[in-house]
Design a protein that fits this description.
The protein is α/β, with parallel strands linked by helices. It has two domains: 4-163 and 199-225 and 266-277, Rossmann fold, CATH 3.40.50.720; 164-196 and 229-250, no CATH class. The chain is built from nine helices and 14 strands. Helix 4 (87-100) packs parallel to helix 5 (132-148). The protein is globular. It starts with a strand and ends with a helix. The mean pLDDT is 94.
């Protein structure tokens, strides 16, 4: 069934891919961001200021069936002061969308809500965030779920992990390797590479975010991830091979950070069901 879907942060690293996926599935997309550069032109562009505190924001965004809230400042700067300073804007926007009548709201979460953890993360894993970004996301999730508890609305909190693809537009180790190779460097200083993480391409993540947002069977925390832990060194070596880069990793140049888990990955049980049932 065709739905009207608002996507905030539509010009962001992930948002652009979510917009494209939804449009390809035949949905009507209202793209919201400070600029519209790089957004699929089939979308309807909106300049409505979503953080104005406007009580009628739901109507002004066209009374969408679904809101996918991905807008977030300094997402790649985990200890930016902006995270906590701006959290009240997100709370007000989402609460006003609920009060206005939006029945399906998805919000981008993060594994950084959890903090240090060894092993599989599911919807019941306790949270002890260790960055301002993680603290803010964790607080927003708690506030949103509490506010929506007795209201007629479906809340999907989509918790993402390690993302790659479209690598010049993010701030990951993959971006840094691409830049080093372009600069003519033959070696890239690296850690032991033994830590295992949950990697997913941004296009697959966009598909998971989209499908999780338009369904109504599964609500609450949903891990959007591969569900498979892969050693960082293995994944980076594969990236270098796939990109045909003339650069090698210098293992052990940097020590493994004490706060990096030796193995952490998401439980993909729910998202796997959603993708199979779509």
């Amino acid at each position: 069934m065709k739905k009207k879907i608002v996507v905030t942060g539509a010009a962001g690293y992930i948002g652009r891919h979510v917009v494209k996926y939804l449009l390809n599935q035949g949905h009507e997309v209202i793209a919201v961001d400070l600029n519209h550069k790089g957004i699929d032109e089939r979308a309807t562009f909106s300049n409505v200021p979503i953080f104005s505190g406007d009580k009628d924001i739901y109507e002004k965004l066209g009374c969408p069936d679904v809101c996918i809230h991905m807008a977030w400042k300094d997402g790649f700067i985990h200890n930016s002061k902006e995270h906590m300073e701006r959290i009240s804007y997100h709370v007000a926007f989402l609460n006003n969308m609920i009060d206005g009548g939006c029945k399906n709201i998805s919000v981008m979460g993060s594994m950084h809500e959890i903090g240090y953890w060894e092993g599989k993360i599911d919807e019941n894993t306790p949270c002890n965030p260790l960055s301002q970004y993680g603290i803010a996301k964790n607080a927003l999730r708690q506030s949103l779920l509490l506010y929506a508890k007795d209201k007629n609305v479906n809340i999907m909190w989509l918790r993402a992990y390690y993302i790659l693809g479209d690598d010049l537009k993010n701030a990951s180790v993959f971006t840094k390797i691409l830049q080093a190779a372009e600069d003519g460097k033959k070696e890239f200083p690296f850690t032991s590479g033994k830590n295992q993480y949950d990697f997913i391409t941004v296009k697959e993540l966009a598909a998971q975010i989209s499908e999780a947002s338009i369904q109504e069977k599964y609500t609450g925390i949903i891990n959007v991830c591969s569900g498979e832990p892969v050693a960082l060194g293995t994944r980076v070596e594969q990236f270098i091979k796939d990109k045909n880069l003339d650069i090698t990793l210098k293992y052990g140049a940097f020590p493994d950070r004490a706060y990096d888990s030796p193995i952490v990955y998401g439980d993909n049980t729910i998202i796997k069901k959603i993708m199979e049932e779509k």
